[in-house]
Amino acid sequence: MSKSENGRKIAWSAVGAVVVLSAAFAFAVPPAVAQTAAASSGGTASDADTRRYIGELGDTFRFILQNYVDQPEAKKLYEGAMKGMFEALSDPYSTFLDEGLMSDMTDITAGQFGGVGLYIAKQAKDPKKGDDQPLYIEVESPIEDTPGAKYGIQSGDLILKIDGESTTPLSSFQAQQKIRGPVGSTVVLTIRRGEAEFEASLVRAVIEIPTVKSALIPTAKGNIAYLRIIEFTAQTKAAFDEAIKSFNKEGYRALILDVRNDGGGLLQAVIQVSDALLDSGTIVSTKGRNPFENSINRAKSDLAVPKDKPVILLINKGSASASEILAGALKDNKRAYLVGENTYGKGSVQQIYSVDPTGYKLTIARYYTPSDQNIDKTGIPPDLEVKDPDLTEAQSAELTKLYESGELEAYSKAHGDASADDRNTFAAALGKRYALPDRILRILVKNQLERTKIAPVYDLEFDTALNSAIKLMDDPAYPQLLGASKTVKELVGTKKAALDAAAAAAKDKAAGSAPAAPAALPSPEPKN
User: Fold this and answer.
1) Do strands 358-368 and 224-229 pair parallel, antiparallel, or not at all (unpaired)?
2) What is the DSSP string of 308-344?
3) Residue of 298, 304, 489, 296 lying closest to 380 (CA atoms)
């Protein structure tokens, strides 16, 4: 970066979480630029407080250096003060980056380290549990065909320990630093899933992320194009265009987009993909305290996918940030129906600033869907909810026993080419020893066998959401369902009303009075 570019901010926005990988991605890191108090607050009384606190910080820093019983290191005092300021924000996405963490970001572009392929973030504080709750590292989403995904780590899993060290005092970047390491070396993660805990021993690898996977799904009524976006990168739009060109050659009647477990990426990339599917309307807007952080991105008239091609978007709790921007843009413009699970809920925008040789990542804006809804911490509900049932506590304990037994791994090593019938026979045998649903066991066996292979583009055997989307495409009432679908703002409002009503009913029940009727969540179903 030249001197004339000092202070220019980067469009690194909408990155979902820290990604524990080793891949070639580049970003500029602008130096932090001091702003006068008058510029940021308009000359109000808070200016005096700002000057006072800045002065007291400097005075205290000097006083400690001169008077503490032992000679302190100025660098440690500086880093401690910086960490304290960012911790005071109570924002898991705003954090101080010490010299090592800033250096690590540069190392990522050089491919010097291996990773396990997980998007991670610091666990958000639950206001119902008080200030003393332990906060771990949470998995936003695994990256397909990486050690983490092949092991079976899922969105929402908590990483309690890294090589035996608790993650409660670690920021997401510090956790990233510990999970990464030389390619071929092993890192052991202690995972909590629901009530179950288990250790995942992962061999680090260089992570190369295919940004898009695509295939045609043949059906009785014609081909349905299936396009999965794994991450929004600088190459995503070109890969998207190439896939659409291939679909056009073969012929297709509808498009299913899949952003499940897509943890985010570049803001510009998701805007480009959204624009290819919309011929008008707002894609996303950002709003911050400073006017220059406010922007509205609108679609241009040209389309890559004709308007007469129905579109369905698959989402889940691993769909975060840029994925949610796409979901909001397509939903609020009534271009796509959303099928799957509620998304992660990451609706803030960060920038990285350099304070050589350290730096920091700061939330500088929030993004809003076209219906003017910020989805931070709430996510986007689907139009049609499709998800596998959660395991009970007893089933979670059984799952832990199965993982710890090593039976899945032993079977896959001995029967790498097992047929579907062989797989199901083994799953049935497991069902006699472990109290788990047959479907879960069959999925576990299949996934274990596929961990050493490249994952298939789609799975019609067990992918309930994908099958529901195909069924929906064949429903003659689909256009009416799409036209009557609610905006993100309406869906979030309805969901909040239902949760408030349920809480009120629980309170009434505890008080011994008649409970209020809970509001019903919309659940449109395709006609048979």
Assistant:
1) unpaired
2) TS-EEEEE-TT--THHHHHHHHHHHTTS-EEEES---
3) 489
Most confident of 2-16, 205-219, 420-434: 420-434
Query: pLDDT band for position 520 (50/70/90)?
Result: very low
* Residue 301 a catalytic site member: no
**pLDDT score of 104:** 63
**Residue from 98, 332, 383, 463 carrying the catalytic annotation:** 332
The backbone torsions φ and ψ at residue 333, rounded to the nearest 5 degrees and listed phi first, read -95, 10
| Total residue count of the chain as it appears in this document | 528
Global pTM? 0.74
Each residue of 160-203: pLDDT tens digit?
999 999 999 998 878 988 998 888 999 999 999 887 888 999 99
d(CA 458, CA 475): 21
Give the Cα separation of 289 and 272 in Å (integer). Answer: 26
The set of residues, in sequence order, having a beta carbon less than 8 Å from that of 43 and lying 6+ positions away, is 37
- Over residues 348-387, the pLDDT tens digits come to 988 888 888 888 989 999 999 999 999 998 999 999 999 8
Residue 515: per-residue pLDDT:
47
**From CA 37, how far away is CA 34, in angstroms rounded?**
9
In whole angstroms, what is the distance from residue 200 CA to residue 40 CA?
47
Q: Is 164 exposed, middle or buried (0-12, 13-18, 19+ CB in 10 A)?
A: exposed
Q: Please, which residues have CB within 8 angstroms of residue 451's CB and are 6 or more apart in sequence?
A: 150, 151, 152, 412
Measured in degrees and rounded to the nearest 5, phi and psi for residue 416 equal: -60, -25
Q: Is the pLDDT of residue 129 over 90?
A: no
- Catalytic residue from among 331, 346, 446, 495: 346
Structure tokens, 193: 């899933």
Gap between the Cα atoms of 22 and 38, Å rounded: 43
Residue type for position 516: A
402: its two tokens: 């199965």
Q: Which amino acid is at 413?
A: K
Q: Across residues 132-138, what is the average pLDDT? A: 88
Q: According to the model, what pLDDT value does residue 127 have?
A: 66
CB-count burial class (<10 Å; 0-12, 13-18, 19+) for 421 = exposed
Catalytic status, residue 332: yes
**Residues 503-520, mean pLDDT to the nearest whole number:** 66
Q: Which of 155, 321, 323, 485 is catalytic?
A: 321
Give the pLDDT confidence score for residue 105 in this predicted structure. 55
A 10 A CB-CB count for 346 gives 29
Q: How far apart are CA 405 and CA 335, in angstroms?
A: 47
The answer to whether the beta carbons of residues 186 and 202 sit under 8 Å apart is yes
Q: Which two tokens stand for residue 322?
A: 């840029």
Q: How confident is the model at residue 269 (pLDDT cuts 50, 70, 90)?
A: very high
3-state SS record for 382-436: CCEECCCCCCCHHHHHHHHHHHHHCHHHHHHHHCCCCCHHHHHHHHHHHHCCCCC
**Residue 308 annotated as catalytic:** no
